[in-house]
Amino acid sequence: VNPQVAFATKEGGRDRVPSFIQRSGPVREVRFVRNPDGTPDGGVHALFTITGRTGAAGCNLAQPDFESAVASRNAIFRIPTPLFGAGLIEAIPDDTILQNREQQQSRKQGLGIRGKANFRVAGRAVTGQYNFNGNDGTLTRFGWKAQNVSGLLFAGEAYNVEMGITSELFQNEREQHPDCQFATVPNDVQDMDAADALGGTPGIQNFANFQRFLAPPVPSTNTPGGAQSINSGRAQFESVGCALCHTPSLQTGNASVAALRNQTAHLYSDLLLHDMGERLSDGVAQGQASTREFRTAPLWGLGQRIFFLHDGRTTDLMQAIREHRSAFSEANGVVDRFLGLGERDKQDLLNFLRSL
Questions:
Q1: For residues 66 and 47, what is the distance between their CA atoms, to the nearest angstrom?
Q2: In degrees to the nearest 10, what's the CA dihedral of 160, 163, 164, 165?
Q3: pLDDT score, position 136
Q4: What is the spatial distance between Cα 38 and Cα 300, in angstroms, rounded to a whole number?
Q5: DSSP 34
Q6: Is 11 left (phi over 0), alpha (psi -120 to 50) or beta?
């Protein structure tokens, strides 16, 4: 059950549930593509306000006009990315990601696969090819568009944007109406007077630690379809070219934490940005990713997911694959090869994906 539905009226709230939030649907955030004057927006718009809720007397905020935005196709959606394995992803060195991109170039070029980013950093040997953090030139890797460089930054942004909790990373309230300020800012801070280090640790750091040590799911060797089908599907995954972007594994580096040091991360992602075509374009440029570019989604744990693609538009894995094919998509050649398989081979590949 989607908890966003009940939150609309929690503790006296007077918000409406937007049409794109459904009891049996995915948890979603909403962004507007354009501002009223036509300039690019792209920012997350708060689904609910504190108006009417316990402790919010005197605060009267209006929800954004979501239904008009939906009707004019100005609203786009994102569902949460899985958090398990985040520590392993964090510990993969930049050079490992860059070296992996150079592998099997002839196959990639033959299928139209590039892997693109577009941030120029002075002093870097390679420019114009990857999604770099604008401050220190390291590779960003978290989020649907690989917009964040670390788990801590990812946590701090989520606290502020999705939950309205400011922190020492994001200190200012997004809504600054003077009649609606009832807490000191930032809300989540280090407690300098705590009796021990853990008690004084701010929430965003605790949450970053939590996601850092969530282990990836262990793939099944026989469900669904049996071991033979799964093994056949794994071979098809490689032969049709899925693995050229959904890289089966990458190695972590000399991490300070032993549990993350020199480990094989079976994430099924190259962590790069790719042009996914018009059908998946969301009209929003984020970080250094264009409106059609998305990070290759890690596939570990796919067998336990309900909703697919960045906006949760489908529960059908076949449809999710077909949605990768449209004008300008780097996946067109691979999807064509998949659709050209016999029905049994297709099912084997689906069984393999569902085993992850």
A1: 9
A2: -70
A3: 81
A4: 39
A5: B
A6: left
Q: Is 41 within 8 Å of 283 (Cβ atoms)?
A: no
pLDDT for position 126: 45
Does residue 5 sit in helix, strand or coil?
helix
Give the DSSP letter of residue 214: -
The model carries a pTM of 0.94
DSSP string, 137-172: -PBP-BTTTT-BSSHHHHHHHHHHHHH---BSSS-S
C-alpha dihedral sign at 282, 30, 142, 213: negative
- For residue range 284-311, what is the model confidence (pLDDT) as tens digits? 998 788 999 999 999 999 999 999 999 9
Helix ranges, 65-111 (H):
66-71, 86-90, 94-101, 105-110
SS3 274: strand
Cα three-residue angle 30-268-347, rounded to 5 degrees: 95
Mean pLDDT value across residues 34-63: 94
Whole-number Å distance between alpha carbons of 344 and 228: 12
What is residue 56's predicted lDDT score, i.e. its pLDDT? 94
Pairing relation of β-strands 44-45 and 273-275? unpaired
